[in-house]
């Protein structure tokens, strides 16, 4: 038994890594399952078009066909282009502003929406509340202080879809390029946010866009809002995508993956490597290896060098300042015991009782397969 998957580059920095007798990890198996669901062949694009015909029919008397969440990053920017130009849908772009957007990301969003003539709705998070919850995640010593952001984005998309009577939320995730983020690294659930806030936060969660069980029932099961992942149906290659975006929208490439948010940039390139020994590039590189877009040896070579951060001190000071954390408090956080969602109250322990329902909802298209496999794949 080794410490690294023989097929991809997932290693023991993922606590729950499981290698089978051939040395293959559970994420490679999820990838195979996804390949079965979304095979790339001459029918892939027409399958996507068929889904879009249904969406168009459903949106006939409405102002919009679907919601597309945008961050200014390459995936969501390209998704807007695809949805409008190639799929001929009428999207409403939705952005969640948590106060950490980089200038490049904001200008990317505006340029793409303007050029494609797409309406944009921005939800600005209640800053004081958002700050206190994000700070609580750092104080808890967990590996996913960007979970409040992800939860906020998730809630906002459904909230606006509900309000605008839209039944489809489009998501720019591609399992072939982004891969499957281990739950040990990033975990998202409303009860987790509640528990961390209770133990390390200040005040209640009233003004925070939390996503709890009642939201799941309201948006997903009662209203039946569905998530569509169009990038899984197309050949999605980073180089071509960036070229298309730069040529059509004067889109600015800000460097690392998910660097559109300064908070995420700080988390992935400073906080996680230094405190946890986690290099989140491993997830994306593993995906690229599995889908044959990069050689495994090349991925390993990239991982030997830490993420590039030219403005480390400047970025660190900016984040601490913005979160009202002083240097001593942050040093304490960096030295404290490492934790993750397993140390807190979450819905996770109930999941095994819900597996049968989750499977049904995935089959009905209410939850995407990747989510089902990510959260339930391990539960037997
Ligand atoms: Zn693997």
Keywords:
single chain, 380 residues, mainly alpha, Rossmann fold, 5-stranded parallel β-sheet, globular, binds zinc ion
Structure, described:
By secondary structure, the chain is mainly alpha-helical. Among the domains are: 42-256 and 339-346, HUPs (Rossmann fold, 3-Layer(aba) Sandwich); 351-380, no CATH class. It is built from 16 helices and 5 strands. The chain has helices spanning 26-37, 44-59, 74-86, 103-116, 127-139, 147-163, 190-200, 213-222, 238-249, 262-276, 281-290, 296-304, 312-322, 327-335, 351-363, 369-376, and strands at residues 66-69, 91-97, 120-124, 168-170, 226-228. A 5-stranded parallel β-sheet has the order 3-2-1-4-5, with helices on both faces. Helix 3 packs across helix 9 (238-249). The longest helix is centred in the middle third of the chain and has 17 residues, at 147-163. The radius of gyration is 20 Å and the shape is globular. It starts with 25 loop residues before the first helix and ends with a helix. The mean pLDDT is 93. The site of zinc ion has 8 residues, from helix 1. Zinc ion (ZN) is lined by residues 5, 7-8, 10, 24-25, 27-28.
Output the structural class: mainly alpha
In round numbers, the mean pLDDT is 93
Unreliable sequence segments: none
CATH topology grouping of the domain at 42-256 and 339-346: Rossmann fold
Helix-residue proportion: 40-55%
Largest sheet descriptor = 5 strands, parallel
Please tell me the CATH architecture of the domain at 42-256 and 339-346 by its name: 3-Layer(aba) Sandwich
CATH class of the domain at 42-256 and 339-346: Alpha Beta
- Report the β-strand fraction as a percent range: 5-15%
């Amino acid at each position: 038994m080794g410490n690294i998957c023989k097929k991809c580059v997932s290693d023991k920095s993922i606590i729950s890594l499981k290698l089978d007798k051939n040395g293959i990890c559970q994420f490679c198996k999820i990838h195979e399952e996804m390949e079965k669901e979304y095979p790339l062949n001459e029918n892939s694009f027409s399958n996507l078009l068929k889904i879009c015909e249904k969406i168009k029919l459903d949106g006939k008397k409405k102002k919009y066909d679907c919601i597309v969440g945008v961050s200014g990053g390459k995936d969501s920017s390209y998704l807007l282009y695809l949805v409008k130009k190639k799929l001929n849908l009428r999207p409403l772009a939705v952005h969640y502003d948590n106060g950490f957007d980089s200038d490049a990301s904001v200008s990317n969003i505006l340029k793409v929406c303007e050029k494609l003539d797409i309406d944009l709705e921005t939800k600005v998070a209640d800053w004081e509340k958002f700050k206190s919850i994000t700070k609580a995640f750092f104080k808890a010593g967990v590996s996913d202080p960007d979970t409040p952001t992800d939860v906020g984005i998730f809630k906002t998309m459904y909230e606006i879809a509900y309000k605008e009577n839209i039944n489809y939320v489009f998501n720019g995730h591609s399992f072939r390029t982004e891969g499957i983020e281990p739950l040990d690294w990033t975990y998202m659930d409303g009860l987790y946010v509640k528990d961390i806030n209770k133990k390390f936060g200040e005040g209640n969660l009233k003004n925070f866009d939390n996503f709890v069980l009642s939201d799941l029932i309201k948006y997903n099961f009662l209203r039946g809002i569905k998530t569509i992942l169009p990038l899984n149906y197309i050949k999605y290659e980073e180089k071509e995508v960036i070229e298309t975006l730069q040529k059509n929208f004067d889109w600015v490439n800000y460097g690392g993956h998910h660097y559109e948010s300064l908070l995420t940039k700080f988390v992935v390139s400073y906080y996680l490597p230094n405190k946890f020994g986690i290099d989140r590039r491993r997830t994306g590189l593993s995906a690229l290896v599995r889908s044959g877009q990069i050689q495994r040896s090349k991925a390993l070579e990239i991982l030997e060098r830490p993420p590039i951060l030219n403005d480390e001190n400047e970025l660190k000071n900016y984040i601490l300042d913005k979160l009202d954390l002083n240097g001593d408090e942050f040093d304490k956080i960096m030295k404290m015991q490492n934790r993750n969602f397993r140390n807190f109250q979450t819905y996770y322990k109930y999941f095994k009782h819900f597996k049968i329902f989750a499977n049904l909802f995935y089959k009905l298209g209410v939850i995407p397969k990747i989510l089902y496999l990510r959260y339930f794949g391990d539960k037997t």
